[in-house]
Amino acid sequence: MIDVKTLCLGVLSRDDASGYEIRKEFEDGPLSHFSDAGFGSIYPALKKLLEDGHIIMLPQGGDSRPDKKVYRITPAGRHVLYQALTRQPAQDKLRSDLMFMLFFGHMLPPRHLDRILGDRIDHLQRAVETLERSADRPGNAGEKFVDGLSLATYKAALTYLEEHRHELVGAALMENKVAE
Amino acid sequence: MIDVKTLCLGVLSRDDASGYEIRKEFEDGPLSHFSDAGFGSIYPALKKLLEDGHIIMLPQGGDSRPDKKVYRITPAGRHVLYQALTRQPAQDKLRSDLMFMLFFGHMLPPRHLDRILGDRIDHLQRAVETLERSADRPGNAGEKFVDGLSLATYKAALTYLEEHRHELVGAALMENKVAE
DNA sequence: AGGTACATGTAAGCTGTTACATGATTTT
DNA sequence: AAAATCATGTAACAGCTTACATGTACCT
Fold first, then answer.
1. Which CATH class is domain A4-85?
2. Contacts of B152 in chain A (CB under 8 A)
3. Contact partners, residue A10, CB within 8 Å, separation at least 6
4. pTM surpassing 0.90?
5. Which of B13, B145, B159 sits opposite A105 (nearest CB)?
């Protein structure tokens, strides 16, 4: 499975960035749909990449914050990234608390169930809007492909949740009635 | 994020099982679509659950293997599981090597790109077939809901990959030509 | 004056993975 | 007879998360 170092190289292969900016990419950017990393893993990763010569630190322009450190990928770094990209990909790994909860949905308090379903629907709606807005912006083929794939799956999940939400909440209400 | 102990309680809330059988659930069963755990995390988790009184070990029937240990959830265990199920769910976490690779798809060797896309299409087709076969089998409301959600997203991903596969591979071929 | 966003980094701890170690039973 | 499946467990390691520690700059 691709580690945080490689994730950082991926971000830096597109543009120079600081640790802070890399983290924003994982939070909001196009990579956020299938990867994640916090400060606690990014900063040590950058330190290691710097030691290994996979990235260099740019001398900061006098106008920017003195503590800001902007990194750039090196040819060696690009090579390492390329090696990682041409390996056999590991299986996707989805960890979903929500789906685990829904799996036991019929035994949950209907109010809780309805809330977590509603929250997820809201979240998916926002994600779909964001991706649809970015669809006509320029971008390379890979980025557009991945955005399209994310959009397609989010839309499918959204439609399913909207269409079947009441069925599951109904089942939970039934269970509650029986228990009374 | 729900841990392996809770995952095990979830499996055991449905039926008594051994560590080996719990692992099969994560590999093939309906929970496999959104959770995962190997022996190295299941056995220590069961040990801890036993110590805490959340599960008990059943005296094994004389006909079964002498080394097989079958566990059953206790009322205390059910309570712990219920607590976990009624908390606010953490954000879903998807880690996907494939999507990371596809994101840089245009700079990949077309053969590699075509292979990883084909492998994923095959994998999704098998997953869809399995879920469709299990659709008419009995199951409680939560299980059916989650199966339906998984099926809807897999189908959407499959359709997208089949329809757009050639676009990305085409872009990669172009890049290669330019490089020549 | 206060809140938010920018900005970096360390240390401890938790969790989970991988490799190792062992062996019985069933199927081919 | 070999291979696959069943079956459990430990130890070392890798990796990531959380909490801590610190401070600047901008916006209202």
1. mainly alpha
2. 156-157, 159-160
3. A31, A81, B100, B103, B104
4. yes
5. B145
